[in-house]
Design goal:
The strands form two sheets. This protein has a seven-stranded mixed β-sheet, sandwiched between helices. Strands 3-2-5-6 form a four-stranded antiparallel β-sheet, covered by helices on one side. The protein has one domain: Rossmann fold (3-Layer(aba) Sandwich). It contains ten helices and eleven strands. With 271 residues, the chain is an alpha/beta fold. Adenosine-5'-triphosphate binds next to β3 and α1.
């Protein structure tokens, strides 16, 4: 079975039963710039979906719609079957608590020590005493291999360590879903693989549903149960890692092999 393509979008349906998140014909534009142009996508529960696509295509915009940081111009977004795009900020809050977000730029609070960064969402939620908070922080830092770093400042950490602390913070509230926006960008291959293993571990041991945006093909093929490729505001291909690897679409092949198009090359030679 081949991967679904724009011409033949129904060739495969990798596990579309029981989607935890669903986009239904979502449109989003910023002024004249059309970013999402009728996005329909199912994110299956307890699985990892990898989103691929060129820079600027709208991958981060897509993730922000899941937690209501951006709202669609039209179309619907569902979380566990409930429409969420029309909820107020207050109504959205309990859903946001079930979703951890590893932002593209890490975004640790530089003025807080590592332990306080991880404790931040737990304190915001309230209801836990300092000893309980300390225990959760310790446990989450251990999950990402950063135990014992509670007292360090973000400025004293390497890029990879910051990513791992940000991931500890994203999982502090035991989320059902984790959105990973370029989790391995800027990391060496070994640190990247540690992050890949963490994504797999969270899925296998804690049944975390993952949505991973990445340009890192090694990571994509290692963690994905489903791969979705975006071009021009739409899904052009969807399938298992194996199906995407074998997909006949030349645009998809060029993307996953990292090859410039004929058009790009002609432009270069004209320079
Ligand atoms: N809040 C916003 N206001 C205006 N334009 C925005 C906003 N957020 C994103 N955009 C634009 O929408 C487009 C898609 O942005 P997005 O950040 O989703 O790209 P991306 O696919 O994540 O790219 P990259 O791989 O470089 O991270 C870009 O052209 C971006 O400039
Ligand atoms: Mg992005």
């Amino acid at each position: 079975m081949g991967a679904a393509t724009a011409d033949n979008p129904t060739t495969t349906k990798p596990e579309t039963t029981n989607p935890i998140i669903r986009f239904e014909n979502v449109h989003k534009r910023f002024g004249p710039l059309v970013v999402l142009d009728g996005m329909t996508l199912d994110i299956p529960q307890d699985r990892t979906t990898v989103i691929l696509g060129p820079s600027g295509v709208g991958k981060s915009v897509l993730l922000k719609h899941i937690v209501g940081l951006l709202r669609p111009d039209s179309g619907k977004i569902f979380y566990r079957g409930k429409q969420v795009d029309n909820l107020s900020e207050r109504e959205m809050e309990p859903i946001r608590k079930r979703i951890g977000f590893l932002f593209q730029l890490g975004a640790l609070f530089d003025s807080m020590r590592v332990g306080d960064n991880v404790a931040f969402p737990i304190r915001q939620q309230g209801g836990k005493n300092p000893a309980e908070i300390q225990e959760i922080v310790h446990e989450k830092l251990a999950v990402v291999g950063m135990d014992g770093t509670e007292k360090k400042w973000p400025a004293d950490l390497s890029g990879g360590q910051k990513k791992r602390v940000a991931l500890a913070r994203a999982i502090a509230m035991n989320p059902d879903v984790v959105l990973y926006d370029e989790p391995t960008t800027g990391l060496d291959p070994i640190r990247s693989d540690v992050i890949n293993e963490l994504i797999l571990k969270l899925k296998e041991e804690l049944n975390v549903t993952g949505v991973v945006v990445t340009h890192d093909m090694t990571s994509a093929f290692k963690v994905a149960d489903q791969v979705v490729m975006l071009f021009n505001g739409k899904i052009v291909s969807r399938g298992t890692a194996e199906e995407i690897r074998n997909c006949a679409d030349p645009n998809v092949q060029r993307f996953i092999q990292g090859r410039a198009s004929e058009e790009d090359l002609r432009a270069l030679h004209r320079m």
